[in-house]
Amino acid sequence: MLRTLTRSLRTSAFRLNKNPLIHENGLYYGKFTKEEYEKAKAYVTTQYEKLEKDIKGTEHVREKVGKMPQFPSRAPAKRDITNLSDFFSEMIKTTGHIPLSAYMRQCLTHPEFGYYTTRNPLDATGGDFITSPEISSVFGEMIGIWLYSVWSSQGSPQSIRIVEFGPGKGTLMHDVVVVFNKFVQKSKVPVDIEVVLVEASHILRKEQWSLLCNESTPYETTQDGFNKSVSKWGNKVTWVDTEKDILEAPNTANYVLAHEFFDALPIKSFTKTEHGWREHVVEHTPSVINTQPKLEGASTGEENVAEDLKTEFHLTLSPKETPSSSIPTLSPRYRDLPEGSRIEVCADAEFYLSYICKLVNDYNKGAGAALIIDYGPANEIPSNSLRGIYKHKFVSPFYKPGEVDLSIDVDFENLKLLASPQVDVYGPTEQGDWLHEIGVGYRFDQLIKKANSMANKESIYESYLRLTSKDEKGMGKIYKFMGLLPKHSQRPVGFGVGESLARVNCHALVPKHNVRFASNLFNDQTPAPPKLPKEQQEEFEKLQKMANSQAAIDEYNRQIEETGAASSDFASSEGQTDVGLQTQYFKTIPEFEGEVNPETGEIGGPKQDPLRHNDWSFNGRVTDF
């Protein structure tokens, strides 16, 4: 009892004293003795040192800072990032591997180092690739004819927008608007035509403005951040950063173009393993600069690493699930694929396609259309198509990030499946077939007839082959056209309406190709002979018999011109949409409006287009891809 009372009194006295007693060495013992304190201190110190050794070895943890990777590590506070390689290196050091889609997006659109935001990829001297509109203006003319045909079949709406996603230099839009405006003027139907260009690169915007607009026309920036001007034909021109900036206009019909747009969208790549779908991710290439350990159990995609190009990054297959690993399970297309299958999925393509379908359906009277032109398989799943394009050659997609264009095969089958519930889908149709059905042969025949030398005839013919041939050097097979129209629309020309229109016979004008347009030896790699309406079949058969003489060639060209004038009887009849369109084309389409060579009198490109100015051959832009 006495002991308890004494302890209680001592405790109460301690509580009454705000400051505990201080030992002469300055330590606050409280209720502990010095011996107890020293023992506890020694134990804590020993455990702390043991923990440091277990984590980092025998050296003190502060002595190791900066000598080995941190998890996660921090980039130096003020390190200068001068290119995308530095950017990716720091990102991977900080967060580990990155998704392929993130790598592609930064390579193409990074505001400081991205491929499309820092250069003109179609520059005449330093560009890395060439597109169909740059090969010949005839390509854009055919698309202009198609748009006019669809517009006419939909009741000729008096307010329309021609919208292009990824317009490049503006060459395609230039050629399309030239033809469309002339057709409209000929039809005398009043129509307000606005041009909308979805383009994030201000470098390319200036290129487009210089081609589409006069120098005297101001290039204005609105309060919303858009750029506006007026085309040389009087059309309102608007530039927007993204599709979300396109204003809704229910009283305006939208006609959308997307030429080589979907092939540059970021993708995710997956392989089906025994443990399910695994994502391909981007890591450092260990033999070059990688100081991080490789992902445990990961396999390197050696097909994408070119040692001679000194790539700093590579694809590797993640051994574990990533946040995106469930994406392939969402589509029945991938459900039954065998183990080892590799696929590419483009979520951005699905998003853009959905918005394009919305634009097609926006007009409250059921008019509108979209034309998608790109390369890729018609009914297969792309598997390993990512490639880099540098100075007209294919290179590793990891070579010089930000300085190399990246491209993939478009999954047309997936686009068709996604668009079908919203719009009528036509195609994909191979480019060579589509162009021939529109009438590209007639137009090239006109150009060849106007050419003043055999060399020019040969050059024009080579342009024709480049656009339509289905061999390895041509674009006629690998490129596809897909049309989107509102539900229950009339089937548009170009997608299987009747028989194809005439193929060009211009190779008969060039001796080295021999006279073959009357031959039965044509195949998929060689344009087929022309097909005429039944009423002219007898005359055509007579023409075939004279094919080996120059007189036959002259007679054929005369017959072609007469065909355009005589076809008017078929223009108004049902089932003859293509003939009527061709008749309109021959009556209204102008000859190529370019500059005249003062020495030879030959026609060349317009001054506004540096690539085609003084290009008397019409083919100066063709180069190996």
TrEMBL record:
PANTHER family: PROTEIN ARGININE METHYLTRANSFERASE NDUFAF7, MITOCHONDRIAL. Belongs to the SDHAF4 family. Belongs to the NDUFAF7 family. Its EC number is 2.1.1.320. GO terms for biological process: methylation; mitochondrial respiratory chain complex I assembly. The keyword rRNA-binding does not apply. GO terms for cellular component: mitochondrion. Its main location: mitochondrion. This is type II protein arginine methyltransferase. Transmembrane segments: none annotated. It is an enzyme of class 2 (transferase). It catalyses: L-arginyl-[protein] + 2 S-adenosyl-L-methionine = N(omega),N(omega)'-dimethyl-L-arginyl-[protein] + 2 S-adenosyl-L-homocysteine + 2 H(+). It comes from Candidozyma auris (Yeast). It is found in: Mitochondrion. Pfam families: DUF1674 (PF07896), Methyltransf_28 (PF02636). GO terms for molecular function: protein-arginine omega-N symmetric methyltransferase activity.
